[in-house]
Write a structure and sequence with these properties.
Nucleotidyltransferase, domain 5, 299 residues, 2 domains, alpha/beta, 32% helix, globular
Length: 299
């Protein structure tokens, strides 16, 4: 039997097909028979990220060792990433919330999620302080570029990091291998170099290997709780988004600061080979493309 003939059918469709074959059966009977046989309705599960790198575990061990080292020296460890972009407007937001019975208490949203109906897009770029369980989200309304990523880190440092880590001698960043903060993104490294020159503190980066982005701590210690907190709430304006993010807390002590970023970020900026070679990047002996330190340039 081909699975597509049956597994994609609703209970009433299965009942109708069985009745056409001469069986006397109701929807309820089919439903309970399916349950007795161990069947249940299940959604797709996002689990397949691709083929992992052969040194995946070794990189995890390296990241863990670096985190231990920075923790012992009381230096900041931050996890960074950009959350999924959200349309700003009266659109459906997944999830359910408790409301009193009655149509007048229902939240009414647009029937369609067309981009043309949105007031804009919000790009929440997050920085999660691992040692203090603090989240910082820079919510942009333009492109998610390398410049935007580094500006988000800069804002975190100026607003929170500098005060918390007054005696910092280094900053450790864990990040995905792609996107605006990717391994091959020259502009990201160039912008980080400018930031390092400003604060005169070296920044060490450890990127997760391909197909391992969901292991980044920010995903399950910050972004997941933001999604839970704003479930079923339409993101009608930038102010609403900031309010919902900043009120995200957990029993384990998570606190979150949200900030609006109305800057425009140019796309398509190229960094030449000569410019890139001038950066003060010190590659680690183990997978230097994943693990490296950007030190201040001599002024």
């Amino acid at each position: 039997m081909r699975s597509v003939l049956w597994t994609t059918q609703a209970v009433d469709s299965l009942t109708e097909k069985l009745q056409k074959q001469g069986f006397t059966v109701s929807n309820y009977t089919v439903y309970y028979l399916l349950r007795e046989e161990g069947y249940s309705l299940k959604p797709n599960k996002k689990n397949i990220e691709g083929i992992p790198h052969e040194d995946r575990n070794a990189q995890f061990e390296h990241i863990n060792a670096m985190c231990t080292l920075f923790k012992e020296n009381r230096n900041p460890i931050i996890s960074i990433d950009c959350k999924k972009k959200e349309q700003i407007g009266n659109f459906k937001n997944n999830g359910k919330e408790w409301t009193k019975k009655g149509k007048e208490n229902e939240t009414q949203v647009n029937a369609y999620d067309f981009r043309s109906l949105a007031e804009g897009l919000a790009a929440p770029y997050g920085i999660y302080d691992v040692l203090h369980k603090r989240g910082f989200v820079n919510v942009g309304i333009d492109h998610d570029t390398a410049s935007f990523a580094v500006e988000s880190i800069r804002r975190w440092w100026k607003d929170e990091g500098k005060a918390i880590y007054r005696n910092a001698t280094g900053i450790l960043i864990t990040a995905d291998g792609g996107g605006s903060n990717g391994v091959r993104n020259r502009l990201f490294k160039k912008e980080l170099q400018s930031f390092v020159n400003e604060i005169r503190i070296p920044i060490t980066l450890c990127h997760f290997p391909r197909a391992m982005s969901k292991w980044n701590v920010i995903e399950h210690q910050l972004f997941s709780f933001i999604s839970i907190n704003w479930r079923a709430k339409p993101l009608t304006s930038l102010a609403v988004i900031l309010e919902l993010i900043s009120h995200t807390t957990t029993k384990s002590g998570l606190t979150v600061t949200a900030m609006a970023d109305t800057n425009k970020y140019q796309t398509g900026i190229k960094v030449s080979k000569k410019e890139f070679e001038e950066l003060n990047i010190q590659r680690d002996a183990f997978h230097g493309e994943w693990n490296y330190t950007i030190a201040p340039q001599v002024m």
